Backbone:
C-alpha cells in the first residue's frame, strides 16, 4: 500500500486513487488530512514566503546571501 501511495503522490495533477488488494484507495490530500485529523492552514506558508521574495532585486538577494553564507560557520 505504501508503494502505491508513493507512486501516486509523485505525479501532481493526476488522480489520487490506487487499486490496492482489490480496493480503490483515495490518496488525495483531503483524504489524508481527514484520516490524520489535520486541519490545513488557510494560506500555505511556503507559498507566502516564495511570493514575498519573488520580486526581490539583486541587491536584496546579495544581502540575504551575505547573512546566510558566512565563511567558516
Residues:
Amino acid at each position: 500500500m505504501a508503494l502505491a501511495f508513493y507512486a501516486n503522490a509523485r505525479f501532481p495533477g493526476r488522480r489520487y486513487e490506487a487499486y490496492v488488494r482489490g480496493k480503490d484507495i483515495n490518496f488525495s490530500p483531503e483524504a489524508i488530512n481527514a484520516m490524520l485529523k489535520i486541519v490545513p492552514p488557510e494560506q500555505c506558508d511556503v507559498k507566502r514566503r516564495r511570493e514575498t521574495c519573488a520580486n526581490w532585486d539583486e541587491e536584496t538577494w546579495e544581502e540575504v546571501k551575505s547573512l546566510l553564507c558566512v565563511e567558516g560557520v
